Amino acid sequence: MNIYKDIKINNQVDSNLPRNLIVYGAPGTGKSYKLNELKEKYFTSPMLYKRVTFYANYSYSQFVGSYKPSPAYKLNNKEKVTNILGYEVDEPIINYEYVPGPFLTMILKAIRNPQNNYLIIIEEINRGNAASIFGDLFQILDRDKHGISEYKVEISNELKHHLSKSTEFEEELKYEIIEKGLYIPSNLYIWSTMNSADQGVFPMDTAFKRRWSFEYIDIDASENKIEGNIVKLGNQKKIIKWNKLRKSINDKLILLNINEDKLLGPFFLSIDEQTDENKFEIAFKNKVLMYLYEDVLRHRKSEFFKGNISTYSKLIKSYDELGGDVFNFELNYEPEMNISDYEDNESAIDVDQISVAQKEDDYIADVSNKEE
Predict the structure, then answer these.
(1) Are 309 and 315 contacting, i.e. CB atoms less than 8 angstroms apart?
(2) What are the two backbone dihedrals, phi and then psi, of residue 223, each rounded to the nearest 5 degrees?
(3) What's the N-to-C CA distance of the chain in angstroms?
(4) Beta strands 49-53 and 20-25: pairing type?
């Protein structure tokens, strides 16, 4: 099984795209969506990319690689053991092998296959301790004008042993990595998302951040894609466009001097949640209201909600009864005739068309009878 050797694809990537990129912005602005669109455009084959997500306990050994136990089996072994599923299998011997993580795998694939461009996407890069996760490979993130690491880092003895046993590299290339050090080639792209509004994220130091290009996604980016999505609020079922609703919420948060990275982006709720009435009700209460109550308005709830909202359960009960009127600011509801009357008009048009058609049929039949 080949880990590093790939077929020649020769995929081209826009030369203006940065190789180390962090896309950041408020929740729901479409950061992952943007990177996924670029991935679909330039890295179409699954062999060309990997996607990982950082979290608090994510480690260097997972991201880069480490020795891990793996079962080995004796040849012509007649002894059988029963596994946890109840099947009889050969008795394994626990062996330890160096298992490369996604980052090291993509680096070595890119070095081994210079004709292809490769990508690793890191979701939520600041949810884990990025400096610790990258470890000594943090140094090779520095790239020259050609996109190659400015510096090489000496690899561990474990990785040297792993490479020396590999049959996928030519000896000259093995020697270069083992003796001269590991580097990121120009055909490997590292793109990440970052959401600084999340609780419990790890701060990034300046030395780490300066090795990346940053792209900010505006709070209203791609709002045209959700412009027509209409939702109904609470038991009153008052109708409002999702885009108008989130903008009204954002406007009030801005008046309260809430940071922009805590505002609601167009895709804070998924398209499916915006367009399905039942899913919207659940998502609005458990995502939007929970986020506002717990994360954004911790000590300023009375300035945003009507009444004495001292608990989240009271907020939900109030929303069920009042719908959008639970907020202490006005919402720009849609006139109900926009939906119900439109449906009535459609029915009326259909009835009129049927009546006209019936009259035409009667007239034709009457003329035919007279001619006979």
Answers:
(1) yes
(2) -65, -20
(3) 85
(4) unpaired
If one counts every other C-beta atom within 10 angstroms of the C-beta of residue 144, the result is 10
CA dist list (Å): 260 to 35, 196, 204, 224: 21, 10, 19, 20
Tokens 């009960």 label which residue? 317
Q: Which amino acid is at 11?
A: N
Model confidence over 58-108: pLDDT tens digits? 999 999 999 888 777 766 666 776 766 777 777 677 888 899 999 999 999
How does pLDDT run across 246-272, given as a tens digit for each residue?
A: 999 999 999 999 998 899 999 999 999
B/e letters for 285-306, b = 16+ CB within 10 Å, e = fewer, are bebbbebbbeebbeeebeebbe
Residues ≥6 apart with Cβ < 8 Å to 271 = 225, 226, 229
Find the angle CA(102)-CA(6)-CA(50) to the nearest 5 degrees: 25
CB 28 within 8 A of CB 267: yes
For residue 265, give Cα distances in angstroms to 222, 292, 342, 348. 9, 13, 30, 39
pTM over 0.85: no
Closest to 284 in 3D by CA, of 329, 331, 339, 232: 232
